Structures are given as C-alpha cells and as structure tokens.
Fold these 2 entries.
Entry 1:
Amino acid sequence: PRGGAPPRIRRLEESVVNRIAAGEVIQRPSSAVKELVENSIDAGASTVSVTVKDGGLKLIQVSDDGHGIRCEDLPILCERHTTSKLSAYEDLQTIKSMGFRGEALASMTYVGHVTVTTITEGQLHGYRDGVMENDPKPCAAVKGTQVMVENLFYNMVARRKTLQNSNDDYPKIVDFISRFAVHHINVNLSCRKHGANRADVHSGTTSSRLDAIRNVYGASVVRDLMEIQVSDENAVDEIFKMDGFISNANYVAKKTTMILFINDRLVDCTSLKRATEFVYSAILPQASKPFIYMSINLPPEHVDVNIHPTKKEVSLLNQERIIEKIKDAIEEKLMNCNNTRIFQTQA
Ligand code: ADP
Ligand code: MG
C-alpha cells in the first residue's frame, strides 16, 4: 500500500536464480542448437549431426567426433561457470573459441533434461551422464560427444506455450546450421528431423567456399555471386580484413540473407545489414534483396565478445569506419556489375 513500509528484499534461492539466468541464455530451441554446435566445433569436430523432434521441444540431439570430455570432468560439466576455454578475465581479449562462459550446458539442465555421452581418445568405453544424477555410467560410445536435450522448457509454462503456438523452431535451426556450414567448410554439418532418413541440410566437406554455399543454398544462388575483399590499407597496423561473396544484379530474392562472421563468430550486425541493403536498393533498379556472406577479421582486442547473453552481437572498435569501407566496396562491385549487365543487354 502507498505510504506503507517498503517491501522486504530477500535473497532468491539458487535454483530460482539459475532458472532465470538459463531462460536468458537458452531463449528458444534454436539457441540450444547453436550452443551445442558451437561446442562441437570448439571441440575440433569434423562431423556434427543434429537431430530435432517437435521443433526442438521434445528432443535436440547433437553428435560430434570431437575430442570428447574427460570422465573426471563430468561431475562439474553442467554446473554454472565451468569451462575449459577461459581462465583469466584477460583471456577474453584473445579467445578463439566460441564458448567462454561455461553457461550453456548448465542452462540447459535448468530448463530441460540433458544426457551427455562422451569418449576421449584411447579410452575403451565412454561415459553416459544423465547429468542431474552426477553418477556417470560406463557405456559403449563412438569417438566424440553426444548431447541430448529432452523436454526443453518443461518447467517454463509460458515459454513452452508460446513456442508451441508460434511456428516451430525447426526452420530457424536449419538456418543456423546452414550458416555454420558456409563458414566452417571443413566441418561436415547435417541436420534432420527425428525419424527422417533425409537430412534437410547436409554440407559435406569441401575446400571451396562457393562449393559450401552451393551445397547448402543451391547452384542458382552461387551463379549470381561475386567475390569481394576489403582490407584497410591506410591503417598502420591493418585494422580489419573482410572476405566474402555478395549477390550481383541478376540475383532475385524478397528477403536479405546475411551470413556474417566476425572473428569466426556468427553474429548479427543491424547497422551493417542496413548499410548493405541501402547500397543494393540505391544501385540496382529492381527491388531485390541481397545474399551476403562476409567474414570479417579484426585484431581480437578490437572486438568485445561479451555484450550479449546469447553472444549474438559483438561490439567493434571503429565500427562506423569499418561499415563505411565495406559499403564503399560493395558499391564499387555493384556499379561494375550493373554496368556490365546493361552493356550485355544492349549488345
Ligand atoms: P563453454 O562452451 O562456454 O565453455 P559450455 O557450458 O557450453 O561452456 O560447455 C562447458 C564445457 O564442456 C566446455 O568448456 C567444454 O570443455 C565441454 N564441452 C561441452 N560440449 C563439448 C563437446 N561437444 N565436446 C567436448 N567438450 C565439450
Ligand atoms: Mg559452449
């Protein structure tokens, strides 16, 4: 009541804190898939297979052939803030792995049922841990790690309902895997619905980026792509480098596909996307949206990777200048191809 004594402040129980935090890290089934696939790639896997049931609400299973997890680490594997990737805060400046917070697996155990099966090199058998039991059992296993997440959000009624009512998350999951497949060309990534014998994405491994794009997005996309490279030549110590493929004037699509990796992290950058779309709409006569794959590399100390709970955004030093440079380069490429096209149709 107004004017009354203020309400008491109490400390939340740890289980409540954990579940609240987990809901932020694992926002939807596709975020769980992203975390698991990143773990597999961080573990040096060359094959990663994803299986999904009911848009990930019933089952998400990610199997890899990476380095596995030591048996003695299993008891703390799914505790919060346990990681093999970071030890000092300063390591964040140079970290190469996609994970670093040691939160993803823990979060999944607070909002779903997690089982890990893993084997490390030289072991005769693997271990399976239905992690809440904390009593890993020996079992047969093939090289690597398999993580199974069942009944995601079983204890978050509102979240589960929303996800059941909205379109299921499977297309988002396929989209994530496709993006990873374009960047990690030497990892064989696949994704299928549980029980289906055909995969919806199957990247294979290849040595060429264009082949990777072809395997995932199709030959018709690749036909209309141009290679693009930008580097900051005026800078004393090269501030950034960008390699990529962008669609030309013949490409037709209603929606922009923007696959952006910054220092090998899949991220979103709204301002770069807007700038790119702006260039396309200004130069190309028809209202087609572009297909863009870009890999930007910067000195690690210029990238803050820790600004978002799901790590889907990063913050860059000199962001405006970088975007400006990239915009100029796209503009130049498009002008050239647009001129050629007009020339060809007139000839
Ligand atoms: P992070 O990736 O930030 O370290 P996670 O909770 O995602 O945190 O994973 C915790 C730890 O578990 C990792 O640091 C890694 O050592 C181990 N791990 C998780 N998934 C795998 C995997 N697929 N293969 C090998 N090790 C893994
Ligand atoms: Mg991780």
Entry 2:
Amino acid sequence: MRLKQIKLAGFKSFVDPTVVPFPQNLTAIVGPNGCGKSNLIDAVRWVMGESSAKHLRGDSMTDVIFNGSTARKPVGQASIELVFDNSEGKLVGEYAQYAEISVRRTVTRDGQSAYFLNGTKCRRKDITDIFLGTGLGPRSYAIIEQGMISRLIESKPAELRIFIEEAAGISKYKERRRETENR
Ligand code: ATP
Ligand code: MG
C-alpha cells in the first residue's frame, strides 16, 4: 500500500488547499528551513489519529489549525486527506475491495474532530483498526523520527515486542482479543 497524495487545507503552514502528490520513486523532500517539510509528516500522523499535541509539536490539539501570519488571518478549520493506493488489496476486511482508500480528518477551533473513510464519517477507531498491522499508525514504524532508532535499540524487551508484533501482523488480533475481553 502506498501513500499517493496528501490534501491539506488550513493545516499549520498550509493555509490554502494544497495537493502534495507522492510519485512512486520519491526518495526525499527538500526545502529551506520552515517551508513545511515536517508539517507534512505531522499531517500524516494527525490523520492516523495522533491524539497528543506534543507529538505534533504543539501545545493544544487546535494548534494544528493555521493561526495566521502577517498577511493572513487565522482560519477556523484544518482538514487533511490522505489518499492510499490499495490496488494490490493489502488491506484486509471490507476495505480490501477499494483500489483507493481516502482517510480524512478535520478539526475546528472549538476542538471538534471528525474522521472520514472514503468520504463516510467514521470513528477514530475505524481508521486505526484498518491500518493495524500495516506499520502505519500514529506511533508506528512507518514513520521513523529523530531519535527513534536509538530508542528502539535501547528499549526493554516488552517495548520492542510491540514493534515486532506490528511487523508480524499480530497486533490487530491482540487488539481484538483485548476488546472482546473488555466487553
Ligand atoms: P526545518 O528544515 O527547519 O526542519 P521544516 O520544513 O520541517 O523546517 P516545518 O517545521 O514543517 O518546517 O514548518 C514550520 C513552519 O510552519 C513555521 O514557519 C511555522 O510558523 C509554521 N506553522 C506551524 N504551525 C502553524 C500554524 N498553526 N499556523 C501557521 N503556521 C504554522
Ligand atoms: Mg523539519
């Protein structure tokens, strides 16, 4: 499964609707300091359900909304849509049949967050559920950030196990068992 494009609007420095395509052979995004490279990673993490403002380099969850500049007024809402190519049918379950999966999240200034899967409103959990076992989640290994390799090397066996279970595709079954036991 491949991330095909990100659509951003009102998110951090991306105030106007912007489409960032990811062609198949992309290896790097370069640009001057402050141009928004890390904001793109924050965008992916945010849509995947990141609920800690600190992990998005902010103080509160509404800090992801464009908060104005000398030339522009702040806006009232942030929206990000990730479009995945699922033509190889890597996702299991009801979404396996779609060649393209769109995942969208919006947030308004009053802190109301909404999630959408292929245009239909859903819960945060519906999104984390379908990506469990793919390596892409708000804290999963599809995104390797600064310091993460040394954290992995130094982690305790129990912490390391979480990553191995995700890579082996076991985490989604463990999550389901946990849910069933809590019912
Ligand atoms: P570097 O090369 O230094 O790592 P970068 O390309 O990764 O830079 P980012 O951290 O993605 O840069 O972007 C930082 C820019 O985003 C800053 O100019 C900051 O003012 C802007 N920014 C972050 N949050 C908001 C927000 N809520 N509203 C407006 N601008 C924002
Ligand atoms: Mg950066």
